[in-house]
Amino acid sequence: DQQVKQNSPSLSVQEGRISILNCDYTNSMFDYFLWYKKYPAEGPTFLISISSIKDKNEDGRFTVFLNKSAKHLSLHIVPSQPGDSAVYFCAASDRNQFYFGTGTSLTVIP
Amino acid sequence: DADVTQTPRNRITKTGKRIMLECSQTKGHDRMYWYRQDPGLGLRLIYYSFDVKDINKGEISDGYSVSRQAQAKFSLSLESAIPNQTALYFCATSDHRAAQYFGPGTRLTVT
Fold this sequence. Notes:
The complex is a heterodimer.
Chain A: E1 4-5, E2 10-14, E3 19-25, E4 32-38, E5 45-51, E6 56-59, E7 62-67, E8 72-77, E9 86-93, E10 98-100, E11 104-109
Parallel strand pairs in A: 2-11
Antiparallel strand pairs in A: 1-3, 3-8, 4-5, 4-9, 6-7, 7-8, 9-10, 9-11
Chain B: E1 4-7, E2 10-13, E3 19-25, E4 31-38, E5 42-51, E6 54-57, E7 65-70, E8 73-78, E9 87-94, E10 100-102, E11 106-110
Parallel strand pairs in B: 2-11
Antiparallel strand pairs in B: 1-3, 3-8, 4-5, 4-9, 5-6, 7-8, 9-10, 9-11
């Protein structure tokens, strides 16, 4: 069973608007969450993370929100830029392993 | 120079052949990981190692083995490749529970 789920395979957003990518998880033992960005023919690159003791973490245009009661996290990108077009993976960690979602392909339209 | 390198970048092999994928890192991290990516399934963990003497199975280790030759080197072997092992393979490193750094990937095709 997939412990981390990204239910939207793709998302299109106009340049300058907000992009919201969502992720759900099932394991309450997860206590560290991350977002990665992946361009074609490259490995994923780390974007932003959040510990379960927080409900928000911000880094420039990127903000991650964590709702532990709903087992849900989201990534907000404001404003969206064409260079943000990529596949975004969320990941969750227990003490040993990282579990990844299936990815959401974001297209930012100029 | 890249922090995490993988060789080869592309490989086509036949069913039943033994193949090794290699990973090297210059980050100085203790933790190393092997993942595979399949369309629609995201990244799935094959094996991970927290130091040279520590090897652990991930969620899909069947059909694979690994060797941690040094802190900087972690290789993945397919003893007898089969077509459903056709995938994109990624090596990653991390420092304790911090974010992972990924290599560029190896595209493996088993015919």
